[in-house]
Amino acid sequence: MIDFGFSVSPSSRINLDNADKEKFARLAIAEPDVLKCMACGSCTASCTAGAFEDTSLRRAILSLQNGLSDDASKLLSHCMLCGKCTMVCPRGINTRHLILSIQKIYSL
Amino acid sequence: MIHLLSATVHQITPEGIIDRYPNSYNHFVLPFVIGITFILIYLFIGLIRILYHLSGEDRIKLLKSLFNPKTAWKNIKDIFCDCLLHTKIWKRKPLLGYMHSAIAFGWFLLIVVGHIEVWLFAPRHLSGLTEGSLYYPIFYRFFIWINPAHETLRGSVFFFIMDFLLLYVLSGIGLAMFKRVRSIALGMRHTTKPSLADRIALYCLWLIFPLRLLAEGFTADLSGGGFLTRPLNWVFRAFFGNELNFLPTWWAYSICLGLFFIAMPFSRYMHILTEPLLILFRNAGLKVRHPRKGFAEAEIYACSSCGLCLDACPMNAQKKNLKYSSVYFIRFLRRHNKKKTKEIAEKCLMCGKCYALCPVGVNSPAIRRAIRETQNNSINCNYSYLDTYAGKAAEVLSDKTRGKILYFAGCMSHLTPKIIKSMETILQASGQEYEFMDRNEGICCGRPLMLAGRTDAARKTIEANTKIIKDSGCTILLLSCPICLKIFKEEYSLKGIEVIHYTQFIDRLIKEGKLKVSKSSSAIVYHDPCELGRGCGIYEEPRNVLRAVAELKKASKEKDESICCGYSLGTLTLDEKDKAKIAESSVSSLMAEDPEEIVTACPMCYRAIRSKAEVPVKDFAEIVCERIENNDKN
Amino acid sequence: MKNNILVIGGGPAGLEASSILSRMGYNVILAEKEKLLGGHLAKWDRLFPDQVPAKEVLNDMLGRMDGVKCFTETKVNSINLLENSYNAMLSNGITVLADAVLLASGFDLFKAEKKEEYGYGIYEGVLTNADLEKAFQEGKKSSPAPRAIGFVHCVGSRDEKAGNPACSKVCCATAVKQAIETKELYPEADVYCFYMDLRMFGRHYEDLYLRAQKSGIRFIRGRVSEVAETAEGRLLVKAEDTLSSKPLKVTLDRLVLMAGMRPSKTGHDVGRQLNLSIEDDGFFSAKDGLQNLQKSKLPGFFYAGACTGPKTLPDTLHEARSAAMEIDRYIKENFRK
Amino acid sequence: MIYEGKKKIWAEYQKEIPEDHYFYVRSCIRQSFFPASEATFLDITRNKLGKDIFETEHHTTCGGIAYHSDAIPQETAMTIIARQFALMHKYGYENYVCSCITSFGLYCETLETWREYPELQQKIAENLWKTCHLEFAKPKFLVHASDLIFKYRMQIAAKSKFKLVNKNTGEPLRVVEHIGCHYSKMFPSKGVGGAEYPYVLVGMVEAWGGQIVDYPERRHCCGFGFRQYFIKGNRGYSLSNTHKKFESMEPFKPDMIITNCPGCPYFLDRWQYVIAETEGKTYGQDGHGIPVFTYEEVAGLVMGYDPWDLGLQTHQVSVEPLLDKIGIPYDPAKKYLGKNGKYLGEPEKPHCLK
């Protein structure tokens, strides 16, 4: 191997073919509300932990749909379950249970 | 055989009190003996098991408490009041209370007085197993033969007392039977569906005392009897003549007792024997650590399955959700049905009403939380930022807060800026020096994590907040959110700092004359938030203040019976529609006396009730704020 | 004597207006270029938001057509304004002298092949909304069932390069409806909707969206950029997931293009002869956009439906009814003094 | 794939290409990397097909590389271009054919800009007069050299000795075509077949017996991208682009790649070595790469030119397996001999790419 001082950089492209649909289906059974998100961003905007760290349920859901579960876990790892997002979600998503379910299902 | 026996009985007339049988034994006692032996062994093993599952620390706590005179006295008092007299039920539903105490206390006295009677008249039957001491006092009236001519006054008194007690118990049984048919008459809207063992035990229980009456009635001419049994004996004689064949009734009586004891561990009636243990544990200050073992096991078996929690549970707003009530939860726990218990544990609002109203005091919310802990405590989190922030926040607050009030609004209150604004107005109007702990950002109090069973995570937020509060040097921590209040009171150690809810604080300000308010004629009703009322026992302070600012009306269910607003953070899985239904039922209770406004003292309740109420909903601080008399005027 | 009224176009607008005018006592002549009446409605299977069969709706309309002289496979060869009536020569040789004309020429679907990058007409799996409705009508079910299906919103809409910067109004709801129907047909398949904004403006539309989400349909905010064929003959679709600001690709078996609404060519042929004003978007310009939506700048010449811009079916029917009233008023004011 | 559908699109992107009389300008890069390709172009058009292709040593670079690397402003580039056009006019030609795609794109861009902004054109004409004393002119027809080969593809096919066919199986060779980005992506109407399904190379391959494979990343840039290559820090990006293309075409098992741009054959060829070296991956059969050709090289091969005269020994990916596949004879001993028969020396054989 020769070090040319440059190399192939990994693709940033999301490949939905590789997304773990089986795991997501399990999540949708544990908390069907995950399907209801319309990406308004209220949860992220009101997030208590979000004042300190990059925390976003909206993006976590999106990351899971895109098969990027590590990103999702990171985005929720600072959550304090305070429930503000539950209060503000216009779709009535049970955000706290969704977060717990994601943390359980995707930690395996 | 039976005929022969009864024939011999009539041939000899005894002098004084004698045993009808030399050995004081008859085969009919066997079912009872088997039953009582079974239950005693079962109890012994069960007790060992429960004690074994307690942590070492808890066992020592328990032991110490037993020898502490104060707790010992409380133990006796509680066991007497709760297990026998059922004072808790008396207070809420007198008829139901009478029913329970008649059966429990009546039966207890029957046993006690029965034993005294034996001790007085045939003491040797209490001295050892050989003389049938296990069963003799129970079937005393069968084995004894008293010549009526030799009856003493003392004997007659016992005859009277025993018959009176039997009547007392029978009146309770009568009510119980009636309750099965028409529960609402005794003040219960919902009753539990009994299991098979429950049914067996129940029917046995129903039969035991009428059978005892029959049996003692049959033998009353030989053993003597009181105002119930003796006339009954005359009636029997009038119908059946002198040749009374009474042995079958004694067999039936014994069988019912035996069956009852055997069915007992598998039925709700186990509570009779477990409740005293629970009282000992509770008074020793033990807490639920495992959802099924140790303390929890005592709680589970102490549940009488009475179903009072069905009426208490806010889930009863929809019949389909009644299955999430504590009584069924405990039943599934007893059956080790993990799937169901997990489902119910996660669904519960943790409003604590079932615990508050439980006659036995089964703390099922604590067991639910313990189940959640097994599910969720191991979830990884990254809270390193809390320390960084706590350090910075403490630095900012430390100088300017010394000796002042520190106001913590909490996460939820930031969604209800009215509360925060009103609080600041009140603090300023009453000339209080304060600092705002979380004006722009703050750390969650940890209660939501705790409720979700993430105890370790909650500890981290508690630690960070504790640092900020302690370093600030404040003397009073003022809270407007009851969810925060609950955990600040229970889990934080803030020595030297008074943790106070704004309802208490404003009450104090008014009493001390620091805040002047005027009263309006508008009719209002106050909703007790679960965490504030049942959670922290604060019922009167908010009412004191509200009476000073408006005409306070009553809700149909209030104080510790207040109905949860439905949007509690306690539930993990209840969906939006079900929450809304509960909110509706909460509002309808509040509207009982047609108030013009609803007031509550929790940001969650405020938002929930506001979404369903047709009258204006105000926060406690907001309504006080509206009624402040400007101090400058004076 | 009955006044003659010429209705150009036998789609929902033309049918609804004709039946009403006929009942009002006018002599209605309807010219439809296609073999069958009904326009695009006849080619649709079910209608959003309640998935009512299009056939039922159309049959209701056709059932009220007694008394209307319908000429199918008939175009307007020439039309000119006489003193206060219109002289139209139809392609079937009939000349109509009409006191009023209603233009209900509707729309043409955007030609999806113009969006070359989507490969319509090039890749087997790429079809349009109309193709899918046709397949639904025929009750066709592919075997083996497709594993993944995508819907592209705004094909030929909100796209200056495609010649139409405006929204076609109905595609979002149609796409969501079709996605649900597709998911119902192939429950195991992954269904994706590529949208830019979801314009679910009408009553029940949002419910439809929620229903789609709950059934597991994935909504990806981002326009499909290009489509290619994989070695297995499946479709490799690229877009940006603009909500996560990342490019995205997915392999699909079908890609349904939500072709938007373009002005109808037939309408233009008529409009040109009368020098009617056409706006930049290619649709006819109403006398004004608020009060006189049905009127043109010419007396006695009226519009109804999508010839003045994209419309939903209820919009079109309302316009047809108000056009009928406008015509009635016009005739009464000008011919029956 | 519906071939008829593609034909419909091709029909919409017809480009008028005059048959004869062209003013030819070379490509800076190609003169250095593939000098034989330009020589072959001139030989085929002039000598084999008898066309009038005029060339002058007075023409310069178009300025494209400097322009795209932000080294010179647009006006400077335009003035250079105006001089090229003026030379054409001076030598009496109206048809302009260029060898380079960068130039072609820049010419198109410049002509379009002049059309949109006549005042700018006026200014450039003045610049031209001030600097060179040349008369401003615009070509009547601007074509790329590949357009011309496309135009002559049937004439070349008629004179061909070999077909793009596997002689062992009789199957047409599977060919990947790659056009330079600046050929038609900026102005689809200026390229044969447009930008989405460009036909210029497809037409040649089909005429010469091969079969085109359409792979998902066919539209993707080779990765040259000027700045992305020139600055070493960005070179990984350039490499990644090529990598992406090869990953995408791999399942289609192409036999060869044909290109019409100066940079593309170079990067598609050389990066295969770097990928093999850094990622350990090769895309051809048995550890070989996929050979990459210019269209002139392919035309030369089918017409029976000696592979070494076409400069194929300068390729990184060895071409012999493909020559064997087609059945084109070559003398391995002559591979590294110069035109004069002198031994040129041999490059070191990489162990990772055969």
Summarize the structure in words.
The complex is a heterotetramer of chains A (108), B (634), C (337) and D (354). Chain A is mostly helical and 108 residues long. Chain A has one domain. Chain A contains 6 helices and 1 strand, in the order E-H-H-H-H-H-H. Chain B contains 29 helices and 10 strands. In chain B, the strands form 3 sheets. Chain B has a 4-stranded parallel beta sheet with strand order 4-3-5-6. A 4-stranded parallel beta sheet of chain B has the order 8-7-9-10, sandwiched between helices. In chain B, helix 20 links the parallel strand 3 and strand 4. In chain B, helix 9 packs antiparallel against helix 11, helix 16 packs across helix 18 and helix 24 packs across helix 26. The longest helix of chain B is centred in the N-terminal third of the chain and has 29 residues. The N terminus of chain B is likely disordered. Chain C is an alpha/beta fold and 337 residues long. The two termini of chain C are 14 Å apart. Classes of the chains: A mainly alpha (108), B mainly alpha (634), C alpha/beta (337), D alpha/beta (354). At the A-B interface, helix 5 and helix 6 of A face helix 19 of B.
What strand order characterises the main sheet of chain C? 5-2-1-9-20
Fraction of residues in H or I helices of chain D: 40-55%
Spatial order of the strands in the main sheet of chain D? 2-1-3-4
Class computed from helices, strands and strand pairing of chain D? alpha/beta
Strand content of chain D: 5-15%
Sheet/helix structural class of chain C: alpha/beta
- Gyration radius of chain D, in Å: 20 Å
Q: What is the chain-wise order of helices and strands of chain D?
A: HEHHEHHEHHEHHEHHEHHEHEHH
Q: Distance N terminus to C terminus of chain D?
A: 34 Å
State the low-pLDDT regions of chain C, or none. Answer: none
Mean pLDDT of chain D: 93
Oligomer: heterotetramer
Helix count of chain D, per DSSP? 16
Order of helices and strands of chain C: EHEEEHEEEEEEEHEHEHEEEEEEHEH
**Principal-axes shape call of chain D:** globular
Low-confidence stretches of chain D at least 5 residues in length (pLDDT < 50)?
none
Q: What's the overall average pLDDT of chain C, rounded?
A: 95
* CATH-level-4 superfamily name of the largest domain in chain C: FAD/NAD(P)-binding domain
CATH topology of the largest domain in chain D: Rossmann fold
* CATH domain fold name of the largest domain in chain C: FAD/NAD(P)-binding domain
